[in-house]
Amino acid sequence: MRILLTGATGYIGKRLLPVLVNKGYRVVCCVRDKNRFSPPAPLRKSIQVVEVDFLKENTLANIPKDIDGAYYLMHSMSTSAHYENLEMQAAQNFRQAMDKTGVKHVVYLSGIINENNLSRHLASRKAVEEELEKGNYHFTTLRAGIIIGSGSASFEIIRDLVEKLPVMIAPRWLKTRCQPIAISDVITFLEKTLFEEKTYNRNFDIGGPDVLTYKEMLYGFARVRGLKRRIGVVPVMTPKLSSYWLYFITSTSYRLATALVSSMKVEVVARNDELNHILQVEPMGYEASLKKTFSAIETNEIISSWKDSLISGRINQSLSAFINVPENGCFTDKRTRPVKNPGRTIENIWKIGGETGWYYASWLWELRGFLDKLFGGVGLRRGRTHPDRIEPGDSVDFWRVLYANPSEARLLLFAEMKLPGEAWLEFKIANEKLTQTATFRPKGLWGRIYWYLVSPFHFIIFRGLVNQLVKE
After folding, report:
1. How far apart are the C-alpha atoms of 218 and 382, rounded to whole Å?
2. Which of 229, 254, 335, 463 gives a 20 to 30 Å CA spacing to 8?
3. pLDDT tens column, 391-402
4. pLDDT tens digits, 331-381
5. Which DSSP letter does residue 336 get?
6. CA 235 → CA 157, 170, 265, distances in Å?
7. How far apart are alpha carbons 115 and 407 in whole angstroms?
8. Are 72 and 90 in contact (CB under 8 A)?
9. 147-151, 173-177, 184-188, 246-250: which range is least confident on average?
10. Residues 6 or more apart from 118 whose CB is under 8 A from it?
């Protein structure tokens, strides 16, 4: 049977894909940009990759007609004034495309929306659900609240807050109740729901057994980590201040922080656990999900991360638009060093950023990250998903991976920090030499002034970086 998987490069899609393949399905992965999709080698013989942008009708013809089931895993955390219209357009195009196939069952993952007073994002997801259920197929919606797992935005935010702040003065939405669920249980529900006739043309809330306030979740996290924390709640804090509070303390982007704050004011508790009995699934508790998550982190089994979503940075289109590094009108800092041990140098390059850092003058990199955060950029806090594995589309601190091929010994990064222009950083080994090239395309006069102002710092950090990379 052939299953259409939308959002295949996303946090949920990356985790659902191997489960579907292991179940024997042939999976058609819909991606907007093939350059961002690097599935594990063992999965490739069981999948087909098609480039589809559900906001562009001319790409819908790439979807095969012989589809049996489909997952709709697309949603936006954008703060654009018109994102509801974009989400509705994508849903309409998806429904119309599915009506031209032989699909029998479509499963949609949404958020718990059983309150009348919904945030904009939850209201938009409800509207998407209503649009999708108009199709000529059986339709099931699974509604989840806070998802706990390695790389999830919710988990990373909770982790940042608890591990960085012994004492917290937090907004009053910390008293809002929610029902967290482990990412592994979400994947199980998604996998078991497909083609289960008892779920046809219905919607279900999914959640773990624990109903907690966000404050209780923070304390629970502290217990699991063996930390003592004190949390006070401020009775009045505007949504904008709350968003800035999350943005500066955690690794989240400001756009995502704004979306989360608007949703955190709304209680998200499951209506019942009917689906648990239908599918015979018993979700794990909150603290058990935390322990499982840290077990995955300690063994480097992080499959996906919200930070690798393009919404966490400044690229909002195909990576291919940036992969050709310009030359005309650009400033460059090119350095070449002989390489005695290419294998070790490649290993050093592939570990760059995150916990490893940038090898030289770390305080300057940290200062640049701090300044970037002050001006609304991503800063250094995103880190990286895996300590020594890099794929196109991944985030590496305030860079985005455009190209990564160890067999070619080439890594190309695009800067997502706040800049008066665009910047690339490339590493390439050829003829027993490492060439490290920083390219900056200035925007206007201020871009040129910026380059000359930071040139002394570039001399320090880029010279030190290339020297450290070739060390044995």
Report:
1. 20
2. 254
3. 888 888 888 888
4. 999 999 999 999 999 999 999 988 888 999 888 888 888 888 777 777 777
5. E
6. 21, 9, 13
7. 53
8. no
9. 246-250
10. 126, 266
CA distance 348 to 363: 19
Q: Look up residue 431 and give its amino acid.
A: N
Helices (H), 149-273: 153-164, 183-193, 214-225, 239-249, 254-264
In whole angstroms, what is the distance from residue 446 CA to residue 448 CA?
A: 5
Say yes or no to pLDDT of 79 above 50.
no
Eight-state DSSP code of residue 407? T
Does the pLDDT of residue 312 top 60, yes or no? no
What sign has the CA pseudo-torsion 194, 195, 197, 202?
positive
H or E element at residue 415:
strand 410-415
CATH class of 320-469: alpha beta
**Is 106 within 8 Å of 70 (Cβ atoms)?**
yes
Evaluate whether 141 touches 204 at the Cβ level (below 8 Å): yes
Residue type, 344: R
User: Which CATH entry fits the domain spanning 2-304: 3.40.50.720, 3.40.640.10, 3.30.497.10, 3.40.50.300?
Assistant: 3.40.50.720
Residue 16 CB burial class (10 angstroms; 0-12, 13-18, ≥19): buried
In the chain, where are the structural domains located?
A: 2-304, 320-469
* pTM score: 0.77
Q: What are the structure tokens assigned to 204, written together?
A: 């279900």
Cβ pair 211, 217 in contact under 8 A: no
* Residues 187-215: tens digit of each pLDDT: 999 999 999 999 999 999 999 999 999 89
Inter-helix orientation angle 286-298/183-193, to 10°? 100
To the nearest 10 degrees (0 to 180), the angle between helices 362-374 and 444-469 is 150
Token pair belonging to 92: 């309409």
Distance CA 416, CA 419 (A): 8
Alpha helices, DSSP H, located in 165-200: 183-193
- Angle, helices 254-264 vs 120-132, to 10°: value is 80
The reported pLDDT for the residue numbered 393 is 81
- CA-closest candidate to residue 308, choices 365, 354, 242, 362: 354
Residues 147 and 183: beta-carbon distance below 8 Å: yes
Taking the CA of residue 107 as centre, how many other CA atoms within 13 Å lie in the half-sphere pointing to its CB?
27
